[in-house]
Design goal:
Layout lengths: L3 H11 L4 H17 L3 H14 L6 H15 L2 H14 L4 H11 L5 H20 L8 H28 L3 H14 L3 H13 L3 H13 L2
Helix pairs in contact: 1-2, 2-3, 3-4, 4-5, 5-6, 6-7, 7-8, 8-9, 8-10, 9-10, 10-11
Length: 216
């Protein structure tokens, strides 16, 4: 995707406010134009710009763009690096909260799990808030509620994984079951099975593993 286009528009809109800002804007505009359609070149251009201008007034927008690019590239390291900076500064959105939590849970370390749990809870809250959206038509409302339930289920399974990593297996199992009850997914079934196995309840775990293979 040509991710640099919105930035080019932003740069044009705010340039010429003062000489130093205008020079920075021109430099960023040129770097983004040179990046073309290459995502990695786009990312490097923005990273190089922040390295040169660490106090840039456009730093929040640049870090949001870097987070979105990292998500598209499936770059967990950058998702965590830039995503956490954005989420420490602002509310973020459900997609960003989910991706940052998932990236943090690629490790089962205590520190990353604690941070992932915070973001997963925020993710759940934001998705639940979408339930109040005003929609017309019974079919549209039903479809929307289903999507909200899916989102809540994803948030709960992330909370379960993080909680389990923190050594609270019983509490994690409750969360995993809540996720599966809200909207059955293979991920939810696998999480339940993993936690049951950890608790020494293998026969129950086998049944949930079977569910994981049958859910599309």
């Amino acid at each position: 995707m040509r991710l640099w286009i919105p930035f080019l528009l932003l740069v044009t809109a705010v340039s010429a406010q003062e000489p130093s800002a205008a020079a920075e804007d021109r430099e960023l505009s040129n770097a983004l134009a040179e990046a073309g359609t290459s995502q990695i070149d786009f990312v490097r251009a923005l990273e190089n710009h922040l390295a040169k201008y660490p106090k840039s007034l456009k730093k929040p927008e640049i870090e949001r763009a870097l987070t979105k690019a990292a998500i598209e590239m499936k770059d967990d390291q950058r998702i965590i690096l830039y995503g956490e900076r954005v989420l420490d500064r602002e509310a973020g959105d459900p997609q960003m909260l989910e991706k940052v939590a998932r990236a943090l849970l690629s490790s089962d370390a205590r520190d990353t799990s604690e941070r992932a749990l915070r973001y997963a809870k925020r993710y759940e809250e934001q998705v639940e808030g979408l339930r109040q959206a005003t929609l017309t038509g019974r079919a549209a409302k039903a479809e929307w509620m289903t999507e909200v339930d899916r989102g809540v289920a994803r948030a709960l399974v992330l909370e379960a994984r993080a909680t389990g990593n923190l050594g609270k297996s019983e509490e994690a199992l409750v969360l995993a079951r809540k996720s599966y009850d809200r909207y059955p997914t293979a991920e939810g079934a696998r999480e339940i099975a993993k936690l049951l196995t950890r608790l020494g309840r293998e026969p129950e775990a086998i049944a949930h593993l079977a569910d994981a293979f049958t859910i599309v």
